[in-house]
Amino acid sequence: MKSLFELPDDMDKALNEMVRRQVNENLNKWLTPLIKEIDNEKGEFIVTTSINGDKLRVNIEPRGFSEGLTVRIKELLPKLDTEDSVKKVNVESSFDKLTNTDWWEQYMINAFPFSCAKNSEERMLLQVNVFDENKVVRSFSKFKKFAHENLPNNNIDDILLRTEFDLAVSSVVMIEKWKRIWEDRDLDPYMIYECDNCSCEICKELNGLTMPIDDKIAQDIFPPNNFHCTCSVETTDEDSNVISGSELLKYRDRISKQFQGNVGINGIFR
Fold first, then answer.
1. How far is CA 86 from CA 18, 57, 75, in A?
2. Domain definitions of the chain by residue range
3. pLDDT of 110
4. Which among 19, 116, 160, 250 is least buried, having the fewest CB atoms inside 10 angstroms?
């Protein structure tokens, strides 16, 4: 993963080194679910900084990646504004606050229901090994190899395994997305449903809908909404054409019961 630092020439040397070290150490953690895809493309990350008063902002811009991957990268990159004044110790502590593993812990305490698993122990075994020892998403070929070697008597269906593997990964991404949406809802109280390459008809109908983030039914519509769902949402402060409450029921009720809900709220993987 290549990072190019375009930092001010007059930046304090200690602060310059701190920004470089923290970005290099944490970039892989922030982008864990997408590491394999990032490594398969020739993009890079441009790192710049700006000072607002005595607060530091670090900007990380992905360049040279495919359009779809760029969007997904931006969804995972945190807002890097220090909460304290620009001093070495405070910058470091502010970065530390951005590297929490809430989404990771939530994933680990909610066993994804892999169908080939015959009991909770096997489900947890597969769930944990979606990631490698560095908490980076494995390639499906490595995950499949692991499943066949460790569950040899389970007659594993590789097509179904791939479907559930992709859903597990997309759920992790949307858990992190929801966390940030909820934290920033005072600034952007609405979300716009975005259907990219999803083939599900209900997802196509949802495409472009603007819904209140704090609406319970809208929360039930939060993706993923089927096994192959690649949908996402973007936030906005524009309140035109907002649909809420009972108006959303006809959309939610067309979604399969097992996908009605919000992985970012209830932490239960389907």
1. 11, 10, 26
2. 3-97, 103-266
3. 60
4. 250
Nearest in space to 33 (alpha carbons), one of 65, 73, 68 = 73
Q: Enumerate long-range contacts of 35-38, CB under 8 Å, 24 or more apart.
A: 35/1, 35/136, 35/137, 36/136, 36/137, 36/138, 36/139, 37/69, 38/1, 38/65, 38/69, 38/73
pLDDT-derived band at 180, boundaries 50, 70, 90: confident
Q: What is the pLDDT, as a whole number, of residue 4? A: 84
Indicate whether this model's pTM tops 0.70: no
What average pLDDT score do residues 14-34 get?
A: 74
Quote the CA–CA distance of 14 and 19 in Å, as a whole number: 9
Report the 10 Å Cβ neighbour count for 113.
17
Residue 54 φ then ψ, to 5°: -115, 20
Specify the fold of 3-97.
Double Stranded RNA Binding Domain (3.30.160)
